[in-house]
Amino acid sequence: MSLRPLHLLGSPVLRERGVEVGSVDAEVETLVRDLFDTMRAAEGVGLAANQIGVPRRVAVVDVGDGDPVTLIDPVVVEQFGKERGEEGCLSIPELYGEVDRATRVVVEVTDAEGARTRVEATDLKARAIQHEIDHLDGVLFIDHLSPLKRRLLLNKWRRLRKGASGYLKELDAAPVRD
Question: What is the CATH number of domain 6-161?
Answer without folding.
Answer: 3.90.45.10
